[in-house]
Amino acid sequence: MPDEGVVRLLIFGRQGAGKGTQSVRLAEHYRAPHISTGDMLRSAVANGTAIGLEAQSYMDAGKLVPDSVMLGVVEERLHEPDVEAHGFLLDGFPRTVGQAEALLALTQVDVAIDLEVPEEVVLERISSRRVCQGCGRIYSTAEPPAVPWTCDTCGSQVVQRNDDTPEAVALRLAAYATETLPTIGWFDGKGILVRVDGLGTPDEVTARLIAAISAATSGD
Ligand code: AP5
Ligand code: MG
User: Fold this and answer.
1) What integer best gives the mean pLDDT of the chain?
2) Could you tell me the pTM of the whole model?
């Protein structure tokens, strides 16, 4: 790691690639906060905040929330003490070149990861995904909670996400192609992008990610 105990990571990947699943594991491994802009927006929607009210229609339709809204949300979070002390693992931000430029004006980034999973596999993963409405824990039909539709962690209801409809998923994948692929290329141009195969079991993918991050941050 570049600084003692501080790691600044971004994780890119198609919708359903496993960014959230892997970010929880990496955040535990590196003891750095997992900052998921999707989770933050879903929580804002659930709490009926001004940002939630503005974001909901974009999210449900599968469109990107405007950069002006996203930048405020992320900048505030990056100034919190846990980020200053331990760094961050950003999941779902940046997704546009404008967001990327704004991020690098605020902070340094050590490694940007592209978790590669083909479209046909993400479509299967999304259709089998279930999430906890309370804490956001991610399940799948292959690995459901012990009590059906009830979160093992917090006991809240487990549901399908509002934006996991075929129509919204198609729009989300289209926005990924037009906005996020160029953003990934932008980080590649900065020399800090690492591509990691996201196929296999979650444990296999985690091991691959940790090895790739170690190699990138030790200068190998
Ligand atoms: P967000 O919540 O970030 O959604 P997303 O990018 O569409 O990504 P997902 O959460 O769908 O996929 P994931 O890669 O996290 O997969 P997961 O780990 O769940 O954003 C939602 C919306 O918010 C956006 O559409 C936009 O409107 C807005 N937004 C957010 N950030 C924004 C920004 N920066 N700018 C503008 N708007 C923004 O895994 C999927 C499933 O696969 C799960 O069921 C999981 O159990 C399973 N799985 C995971 N790994 C494996 C494996 N190895 N093998 C088998 N199954 C697996
Ligand atoms: Mg996610």
Assistant:
1) 96
2) 0.97
